[in-house]
Amino acid sequence: MLSSFRVSWRNVTRHKKRFFFTLIAIVLGVTVMTSMFIAKSTFSSLMDEQERLTAGNADFWIQGTERFFSMDELDAFAERMEIEEGLASLTKHGFVEMETDFPEQASVRLTGISHFDNGIHELPVMKGDIKKEGLVITENTAKLWNKDIGDSVSFQDMGSIEITAIVAEGAMLNSPKDMETAMLRDFRVMVPLKTLQEWTGMENQISEYRFKVDSDFNSPELLDAYQSELDETNLFVQPIVVDMQQYNDVDGMYYVFDLIAILAIFISGFIAFNMINTSIVERKNEIAIMKSLGYTKANVMSLVAKETAILSVIGTILGLAVGICLGFVVQDILISAIITQDINYEVELVTPIITSTIIGFVFPFAAAALPLYKAGNTPILDAMFGRNNTAKRTTRLMLVRYALGVISTAIGLVDNIWAFLFLFVGLVLLFPLWVKLLQFFISPILILIFRFSGKQAIRSMNQFKGRNANTAAMLAIGVSLALFMSAALESMPKGMEEDIRATFGGDIIVQKETAWTENEIAEVNAIEGVEKVKAYAEVPNITWNTPSDELREFSVISYSDIHHAEMFDVLEDSDKESELPAIYVGERALIEMGAEVGKPFTFNTPAGEKDFFIKGSVQTSHYSGYVGFAEEHVIRDFYNWHTDNQLIINVVEEEMAPVVLSSIWAASGGTISNVESMPVSIEQAKSGITGMSDLMNGLLILVIAISAIGISNTLFMNTLERIKELGTMRALGFTKSQVRLMIIAEGLLIGITGVIVGTLYGILVIYLNSVSNDAPAFLDFSVPWFSLLLAIIGGIIFTLLASWLPSNSASRIPIKEAINYE
Amino acid sequence: MINVTEVKKEYKTGKEILPIIKGVDFKAEKGEFVCIIGPSGSGKTTLLHLLGGLDTPTSGVIQLDGTEITSKSEKERTILRRKKIGFVFQNYQLLPTLTVYENVVFPLHADGKKVSTAKVLELLAAVGLEGYDKRFPYELSGGQQQRVAIARSLIHEPAILLADEPTGNLDRQRSSDILDLLAKFHQDRKQTIVMVTHDMFAAGYADRIVLFKDGVIEAEVRREDEDYAKFLSRFMA
To answer: What CA–CA distance (Å, rounded) separates B203 from B210?
Structure first.
């Protein structure tokens, strides 16, 4: 066994450079795939963990339709025997007393909880005692406020309190990353409920009561029972569901990660295929001799399989090691690009490593399947006596290849986010035709530049047309994807800005802790620069079940007139009439619900479980489309929600927004719980994309680099397969530099063809995505000229670099040995 | 024309030094047809490679047409080969992706020279391949491929034609055709030819036969020498 592996090792390393480049390609493929899986898995588990921590160990929560309610209303409820533990809390907005450049930087959300020693919230303590009643802040808050355990912190118009515990960043308590992000995000701290009630004059008032029930009693009927019990009150009960999809649209990002991983493995697999296939062709005679001496088809295949195993094991082990390191880097960049708060997370390694290991081990075998088959079926006499009976079969195979190429391309034009993978498969299959076509235009230029060497390069291109075409196709895929990503990343901020502008509904949204009164609305209306104001309702925590019976939640926002709704654009409107109350649902939510326009759907509302008619689907920037919209009377009558605590403000000029906002803060800062402005929302959306864009560009450069390794590998193999010819050329007077130029010209021919076809396909993919209804990104049809230029220059530079080593090695072939090479 | 003085060639195999050519002096006059014969491993092909500048001697001097080649750089030797030497190999060494015509004009193209189509076709006709110019090597028989190789070796009108076992892969009839062809060029063009072979039938076409053994010239005989026939028959037997 060991000895046969030793033989396989000798075979696989027979040509050191070829082995090295193939191994590098496999390592890079596994590296990129592992890092993508780590990033995706970590981010996904981070989201789950955030959801879990936000929910705590509670099963239900009770909230008031008026935002605050008296604890007395819960007295009877809290006595129920199945309730194991309950926790009352009050959330208020305030300002910490500290020197800041802007008042917003001191903005704090204080949560007062009824007892610190509870089994509902999990707070990882870093310092101090969490059971001691006092101020609990996060590590980063302590750093930014320059405070420690025992220090006193004062809140404007409230009071002072001593810090008793410092905890790690989490879902419940967290902080902005730095003072710059503090302009947009509140610090979240925890204080004793009684203290906060005293400070704010809200004795006995709370904003929610969450509780845990004995698991023996927990059932869907329990929720109905609770809802019936609270039916006549201004309270409502909901199961605790924290659905982070409302705040992060990560589907598009996961899609890109999957795409990059698939592409990297696809290109690496192709390079492995090239190497193994060439090795089989080279050893045809050897294999025939083995077979003539008694080796069976299975013996031959096992020999080649062992060689593949060597490549796959070494490549996967090295790729995993590098991939884990890259995964940490990618994850770090990703989190800082997407999440504005400082957050602790653990990199998820187990599942990505297991998945990458399996794929890493398997994909070289998938790539080797055809060469393995070919090796096993080597005809003894034909191989030993150099007979070639493959011409007819090759022509037939090429015809099948082109037919499959046309079919794949046709499937690739279907409007589906994964369909364009077929477009790329079609590209690979049809590439020899592209080579023929482009050669017609490129050849005269190459001959002009490289003269006779250029002419010879064109002939060599034809000699290994299958392999060269496949290599160029890999580069083309890399280039087209780079262009598409570039266009997407260029277009997304613009698309998002347009989307936000079109559906924000005004310029500023101010959320109050209680309903906006007519007097307050009039006061805001009177502020200089305000054009108009309109109060509306946003009902939070509406829960529903997905088709796989998972609980999800979103908010439902009120509108007064569907024809003048400014917060959404109707995409689909049902003609059907229904007696059920209507709801328009955002695109993302509709997908998650697995619902259809024109059909009923059940929601858990503050008024209990009710059926609604899905009147249509809408596009909106609010919660990135993970939201519902209902008419004002529906919100009142069917959701039992009477609090218009949101105010949308239109300003005379956009530049006036910060001034108006300052005036609102000054007038009613104490009762405001959240503020959003259109320019800030646009800026936030854009900055997230900019952070992602650098990461994506880096990864795509890596993919193009793997393609370039493919070019090196192919040129090495082309050289190896015609050592004798090169020796003859040299013997007939071809100089070393002519050989070198010939190989470089071959590389350029592959590279330029790849770049041109990649550009054409890139533009096609951009176009298909711009007209697609299924694509996850906002994409206008525009050619990213700068990226195009970079792709062309980059492609040519990568090609020249990739050609240099093979050209050097070809020019150094010793003539005497080469002409006798068999 | 060819002047080889005290040429030695050694190869290192690990720590061992393997002498292949052990101090050879050899001359060939302009227009002479010399055949080097000898058993396998005697060093005759190595000598031919040294003459063609494909390899360099460990010591000694080689002059071709008045030019000393041993001290030349690889590039200079390549250019010299391109201009002054024609090569014919045992296994033809045609470039498989080039047509017959393109194979023949390769040395001229490599030199950046323009080619007269008429001249190429004339040469092809001279080697008996009229109408074969557009064919690829795989469409030809062994004998035809060797004819292409001869045409290619002569297209640039080299001063010297070096042939390494040109009939080694051919049957007697085809060998005879090829040798007749070489003899014809030798006669008509006064072409200097150095041919390596172990086939005494082929050697019989030469003006002079040099016997190579264990890296040294053991004997040589000219056609006009009295013991020429005896020499031939001794080896043919």
So the answer is: 9
Chain A CB within 8 Å of residue B101 CB: no
> What is the token pair recorded at A636?
């009142």
Contacts of A433 (CB under 8 A, 6+ apart): A402
Any chain A CB within 8 A of the CB of B115?
no
Question: Could you give the C-alpha distances from A222 to A69, A138, A218, A243, in angstroms and in order?
Answer: 23, 36, 6, 22
Q: pTM of whole model > 0.90? A: no
Judge contact between B33 and B183, C-beta under 8 A: yes
Interface test with A, best of B97, B102, B148 (most A CBs within 10 A): B97
CB contact under 8 A, A731 and B87: yes
Distance (Å, whole) CA A409 – CA B165: 54
Q: What is the ipTM of this complex?
A: 0.73
Per the CB < 8 A criterion, the answer to whether A136 and A165 are in contact is yes
Q: In angstroms, rounded to a whole number, what is the distance separating the alpha carbons of residues A528 and A518?
A: 18
Helix (H) or strand (E) holding A442, with range, is helix A420-463
Q: Which amino acid is at A307?
A: E
Say what angle helices A251-282 and A678-721 make with each other, to 10 degrees.
0
> How far is C-alpha A753 from the chain's CA centre?
31
Rounded to whole angstroms, how far apart are CA atoms A74 and A789?
A: 67
The nearest CA of chain B is from the CA of A733 a distance in Å of 4
User: Nearest CA to A644 among A775, A774, A513, A523?
Assistant: A513
| Placement of tokens 């075998």 in the chain | A365
- Residue A460 near chain B (CB below 8 Å): yes
Give the sign of the dihedral formed by CA A291, CA A295, CA A297, CA A302. Answer: negative
Q: What tens digit of pLDDT does each residue of A271-302 get?
A: 888 888 888 887 887 787 777 666 777 878 88
Task: State pLDDT tens for residues A112-126.
Answer: 998 887 878 778 888
Gyration radius (Cα) of chain B, Å:
18
B66/A contact by beta carbon, under 8 A: no
